[in-house]
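User: Sequence recovery, please. Input:
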């Protein structure tokens, strides 16, 4: 049976609704993810060590031109 979702998935990926797992984060996405992580840290839902790891991974993306 042919997958009926294929045409929709292809179109969604072309317009940016679905992102490949291999696509690197943009600067804007990295900033949003870091802000979300900080909010989770402030709410007590994320440990400081986990936040620091995320921050370390995202900082180079955010700091690049």
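Assistant: Recovered sequence (65 residues):
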């Amino acid at each position: 049976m042919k997958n009926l979702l294929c045409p929709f998935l292809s179109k969604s990926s072309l317009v940016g609704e679905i992102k490949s797992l291999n696509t690197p984060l943009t600067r804007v996405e990295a900033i949003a993810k870091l802000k979300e992580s900080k909010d989770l840290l402030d709410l007590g839902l994320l440990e400081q060590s986990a936040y620091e790891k995320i921050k370390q991974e995202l900082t180079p993306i955010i700091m690049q031109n």
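The mean pLDDT is 84.
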